[in-house]
Amino acid sequence: MNKTTLHQEIWEREEDDSLRLVMPKIINSDIGFQLMFGMSENHICYTNKQSQNNNNYETKIYRDIEYTKKHF
């Protein structure tokens, strides 16, 4: 399992929802991903999106063959 690490955020979100690049004077972490792909997605927002998407679908569970034939 991956371990979360502390890293520097080099992107700041403006009032109009645009991004602004803010480079620190001292870089003491790996910021290569952010430079290539932009702002990394917030874990809380990602989890909320995933939960909302999962709630859009209902999984059907069939007990046995007779139940399946009756309800299919």
Task: Walk me through the structure.
- The protein is mostly helical.
- The chain has one domain (11-71).
- It has three helices and two strands, in the order E-E-H-H-H.
- The chain has helices spanning 32-37, 43-55, 65-71, and strands spanning 11-13, 19-21.
- A two-stranded antiparallel ribbon has the order 1-2.
- The longest helix has 13 residues, at 43-55.
- The model has no long low-confidence stretch (mean pLDDT 76).
Detail the topology: elements first, then pairings.
Elements: E1 11-13, E2 19-21, H1 32-37, H2 43-55, H3 65-71
Antiparallel strand pairs: 1-2
**Beta-strand residue percentage:** 5-15%
Content-based structural category:
mainly alpha
User: What spatial form do the alpha-carbon principal axes imply?
Assistant: elongated
Catalogue the unreliable spans. Answer: none
Task: Write down the domain tally.
Answer: 1
Gap from first CA to last CA: 40 Å
Estimate the mean pLDDT confidence.
76
What's the number of extended β-strand segments? 2
Biggest sheet: strands, sense, closure?
2 strands, antiparallel
Number of helices: 3
Reading the helices and strands in chain order gives EEHHH
Major β-sheet strand ordering: 1-2
